[in-house]
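Hi there, hope your week has been kind to you so far. Please have a think about how the structure follows from the sequence. I've dropped the whole record in just underneath, so have a look:

_____
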Amino acid sequence: MNDRFQELTVFVRAATTGSFSAAARELGLSQPSVSRIISELEERLGARLLLRSTRKVVPTDAGESFLQHAGQILADLERADELARNMDSVEGILRVAAPSIVCQRVLIPQLRKFALSHPRLKMEFMTSDSLQNLVADRIDVAIRFGKLKDSGFVARKLAELPRILIASSDYIAARGMPESPDALAKHDIIIGPVSPQIWPWTFTRQGESHHARIAPRYLFDSADGAVAAATAGLGIARVAKPFCADELASGRLLAVMPDFAPEPVEVHAVYPGGRATSTKVKLFSEFLKELLA
């Protein structure tokens, strides 16, 4: 056992059990060995960590602080070991339902990294902005936008993405740049995907909320459609900023009313209820969470 690792392990068990002898029994050491290791640790740190008596061992203030951090270090090491072991045991089929824009702009460009880490895992993707039946379609995890309704499903929030209003330079040149949410009533509005939570749009500017009732001219069943329509100069769309980053960077799209921030959109991983979350689902959810961050 590494000396520093042994020090932490012995100290945590002694402080937690309140007994050198109990720590010695748990770790397969002699009581004098435990006492020596603790003494050497205190000498190295230059601080008394444990108060000894004939009946009990009690942490000092310094010991309590050290115990908190040492316990977290050991827990992190154990978690790292568990993840490493599970990396090689992930196999079978992972069925994922996700909006097409998430697959095309977030997942697919980075999916090879995940696949290389789990060579025995096969993946099936249902790319649709409609809500699938997770149980009937045997889906392991679904990626969904917006606030979730109460259901029998288990959900994990992966991210909260900033949104932005976008339009092409041709559209703005022809119709002008709106200066406030109220001015949106004079513009062609693009909606995608369609949901009952769209109207009205809410914005924040310098800590104040602003609302605008939207009368869309173009309705699409996907965010991809909204981005494509805005790029083609059809009007103004509201999209999560990461999903139009390439068009903004290239100048194909412009930010509209940048001083007014639309409400962010939540992204959740949803799992069928009544089923224990598998390792492959946990690892995939964590992978997507990192990508969205």
Summary: The chain has three domains: 3-87, 92-159+267-292, 163-263. The two ends are 37 Å apart (CA to CA). Residues 61-87 form the longest helix (27 residues). Residues 30 and 130 are 63 Å apart (CA to CA).
